[in-house]
Write a structure and sequence with these properties.
19 helices
Length: 380
């Protein structure tokens, strides 16, 4: 049973190219399935979350991160009576436009584009995710892209520079770029996925950071949110230690954050009482943490930024990754023939280079860089 303010496949704003309905699935279920079968989604298995692929088999990748986001988001969506199928589609697709090497690759590609064309929007991975599902996937005879529903496309575009929003609005008046110009909200399902993304990556980055040895569990327990659940676990299981204690702490921390979002969002929904999806768009954000949990979240995020993301070993590898992306960008711009013909013959060369690089996995980018420069950047 969906709440009246949830997105319904039956009242979707539809697809850009009309299609007959499927006999066994609604439109949001079809969107989810198209994403799962897409090339861009499969590539996520070899795209960095924090640690590069060759650094260990058990660290999260963009693919496993996306699956964890989907689990968190569906748990919340069910209790709030939101559309679980749409939520799952958004969670699985939210990173399909990410570059190789995580944020380091994104930053390098953005800087490279801005250096060639100052004043442009540069590279945005959310905008690239939209390009992937709208244009770059080649799975259908009748059209480019996956031809997803408006609500799915809207939720994938989490952030958007005004210049890109204006570009979208010019090509699709009143479409998915409009809310960034009007400063209105997306659906509750999209709001939920944004929050689930943060909940998931904070938790699994603690796990991966400790597994890597770059931070210790004792260090992380200086953060009040983590310490609270470690102490709670030890009160119930005094002999717990090692990885089992770490996992029990993270499990409790995740569950508590999920319950907090459910309670806080329920309170906001009861206060504002939206009756339709359009009411949701006109309100302030209605999917939120409590004020206390928001503070605890930022403390943990700050700890991870200082002690993990800025750890000298991580910085060293991300600096090398930036060099790989920057080098590839320069080579392809100056010699487009080094790219496949479909990209080399595109009229907007800067965008074609960005599309090609963004679609690479970590290991393909490294192979291409070694082929074109003769240098081996990382040793497996």
């Amino acid at each position: 049973m969906l709440a009246p303010y949830a997105c319904s496949a039956g009242s979707s704003r539809g697809r850009r190219f009309p299609e007959n309905p499927a006999p066994t699935r609604d439109d949001f279920q079809r969107d989810r399935d198209r994403i799962v079968h897409s090339t861009a989604f499969r590539r996520l298995v070899y795209k960095t979350q924090v640690f590069l692929n060759h650094e260990g088999d058990l660290f999260r990748t963009r693919l496993t991160h996306s699956i964890e986001v989907a689990q968190v988001a569906r748990s919340i969506a069910r209790r709030l009576q939101l559309n679980e199928d749409l939520v799952e589609a958004l969670a699985l697709a939210h990173d399909v436009g990410h570059t190789p090497f995580g944020h380091a690759g994104q930053d390098a590609l953005h800087a490279s584009m801005r250096a060639v064309e100052p004043g442009t929007a540069g590279f945005e991975h959310n905008f690239q995710s939209l390009r992937a599902v709208d244009r770059l996937e080649e799975r259908y005879a009748a059209h480019d892209g996956l031809n997803l529903c408006f609500e799915t496309r809207e939720g994938i575009l989490k952030h958007c520079a005004r210049r890109n929003a204006q570009w979208l609005e010019a090509r699709e008046p009143g479409g998915i770029g409009r809310r960034f110009l009007d400063r209105t909200q997306p659906s509750l399902e999209a709001q939920l996925c944004n929050l689930a993304d943060e909940i998931a990556y904070n938790a699994h980055d603690v796990d991966d950071g400790v597994r890597s040895g770059l931070i210790s569990f004792d260090e992380v327990c200086d953060v009040p949110l983590v310490r609270r659940f470690k102490e709670e676990a030890l009160r119930e299981h005094p002999d717990l230690q090692g990885r089992r204690l770490l996992f029990e702490t993270i499990r409790r921390m995740l569950s508590n954050q999920i319950y907090d979002v459910i309670d806080s969002s329920s309170t906001l929904l009861n206060q504002h009482r939206p009756e339709t999806v359009d009411d949701v768009r006109r309100c302030a954000p209605l999917i939120a943490r409590s004020a206390e949990m928001e503070s605890r979240h930022h403390e943990l995020k700050g700890f991870l930024r200082e002690h993990l993301y800025r750890h000298p070993q991580v910085v060293k590898t991300t600096d090398q990754a930036r060099t790989v992306v920057s080098d590839l960008f320069g080579i392809y711009v100056n010699d487009p023939a080094q790219m496949p013909r479909d990209y080399a013959q595109q009229p907007r060369m800067l965008r074609a280079v960005a599309d090609y690089i963004a679609g690479m996995t970590d290991r393909f980018a490294l192979r291409e860089h070694e082929r074109l420069t003769g240098r081996k950047t990382f040793q497996s």
